[in-house]
Write the structure tokens for this entry.
Amino acid sequence: MQSSFKTALGFDFGTGRIGVAAGQTVTATAKPLNTVNARDGIPDWDALAAIIETWQPDCLVVGIPVNMDGSISDMARRARKFANRMHERFGHPCFLMDERLTTREAKQIHYAAGGGSNFRKEPVDSIAARLILEDWFSTTQLIPSHTPLETLYGIGQPER
């Protein structure tokens, strides 16, 4: 449990949409918030600033979509870049969390609640962000956003 932080915002980065969830460490639970639009991976920074202003988190957590075999995808690199930019822009500690299979689990939760299969109309990104944040609450490992993914996953040379 990340007891040194009371509140956190979790993010499921995407090039068209970013899922967002808010949570707190006392119960280690989170709730999905509205998604934030992005255009080709560039987020609506004003919308993110408004969410951070509203929720006043102690830290930020960004899911890293590592491939199932542990290799680093282009999307994982873009998510880490997003995490670093969040840290630079807003000054909050920002951490990385492996998010393998969270979208799949988010879809299962969505279907179980009676949701349909049109994910453009009914996005599950913020459900995935909730799962990322709740997983982070239960881990003891803090991975700062500036940590090179190659170092984290023990492969290749660190990115520059």
Observations:
- DSSP finds five helices and seven strands in the chain.
- The beta strands are 7-12, 17-24, 29-32, 36-39, 42-43, 59-64, 94-98.
- The first helix runs from residue 45 to 55.
